[in-house]
Amino acid sequence: MSDTETLDAVAALVRQARRILIITGAGLSADSGLPTYRGIGGLYDDKLTDHGMPIEKALSGQMMANRPEVSWTYLTQIEANCRGAQPNAAHHAIARLVAERPGSMVFTQNVDGFHREVGTANLVEIHGNLHQLVCTECGRGRMVPDYAGLQIPPACPTCGGLVRPDVVLFGEDLPRDGILRLEHMLADGVDLVMSVGTSSLFPYIAGPVVWAAEQGVPTVEINPGQTPVSARVRHRLPMGAAHALGEILQRLDAGS
Predict the structure, then answer these.
(1) pLDDT digits (tens, 9 = 90+) for 29-67
(2) Most CB contacts within 10 A, which of 17, 175, 177, 245?
(3) Buried b (16+ CB within 10 A) or exposed e, 82-112
(4) Are residues 159 and 137 in contact, defined by beta-carbon separation less than 8 angstroms?
(5) Residue 171: which residues within 8 A CB-CB, separation 6 or more?
């Protein structure tokens, strides 16, 4: 099947669907200029950090607890590389698809906040949001547009406790409420599962796609590269998210 035929087939599935689960990863934000990465981009691919350790150790929950200045060094680097970027056409396309199908959900690994920024409904940010800060002592939180001007590591203005981004660091548990929302979505039934811009390396990301394929639910992957779910999906679009979703929306509009 050619890419054009696959796009036609995917658009037909989207047109018929009322409940879509859309799972997104770092590739979705590539068109916004954000680096894709091991953890958060190619910033540290196959290299040790300046502290002589893998980024997974530097950005672990244990490091944040014991040496927060180390974790914050790389959090600020990551934030600086993302600063000034904006949501792209793929984020807007997904927000529209969900708005037109109120039973749908977006389950994202991304911490850039772009889905939230464009008003995506029924959103689960399973890894949190880089711009949401929370005090580890009193629990008070606040949203910040960026990390410019922050004391590193930041102290809570209320109690003086350590402040960190409300994100899942390496070695930390996923938020249970987010996993429960995903489980309830699947239990209530879905018409289509779409994997967009994710390498599908984690079980909770690949699992829903594999489950849907086994249940006979239509599945779609949008990703330029091969992933562990590529051979399992019904339709695969080897292209960038903004391109693929733009083509799908064109077909939906032409058929309406």
Answers:
(1) 888 988 665 444 455 656 778 888 988 899 999 999 999
(2) 245
(3) beeeebbebbbbbbbbbeebebbbbbbbbbb
(4) yes
(5) 60, 61, 62
Residues spanned by the domain of 57: 35-84+132-167
Sole residue written with tokens 């890419």: 3
Say what the pLDDT of residue 139 is: 94
One domain for residues 245 and 193: yes
In degrees and rounded to multiples of 5, residue 236 shows phi and psi of: -125, 130
pLDDT in tens, 139-186: 999 999 999 989 999 999 999 999 999 999 999 999 999 999 999 999
Q: How far apart are the first and last CA of the chain?
A: 24
Sort 169 into a burial class: Cβ within 10 Å, 0-12 / 13-18 / 19+.
Answer: buried
d(CA 232, CA 145): 39
User: Does 161 share its domain with 250?
Assistant: no
Single out the residue of 111, 95, 112, 146 nearest to residue 32, CA to CA. 112
Point out the residues that are catalytic: 127
Annotated binding residues for Zn(2+), written as ranges, equal: 135, 138, 156, 159
Least confident of 6-15, 39-48, 208-217: 39-48
pLDDT of residue 171: 94
Q: Which residue has the tokens 């893998």?
A: 54
Query: Residues near 240 by Cβ (< 8 Å), separated by ≥ 6?
Result: 27, 30, 31, 90, 197, 222, 224
Last residue of a domain, one of 167, 192, 224: 167
Residues annotated in a binding site: 135, 138, 156, 159
Whether omega before 208 lies within 30 degrees of 0, making that bond cis, reads no
Q: CA-CA distance, 37 to 201, in Å (whole number)?
A: 13
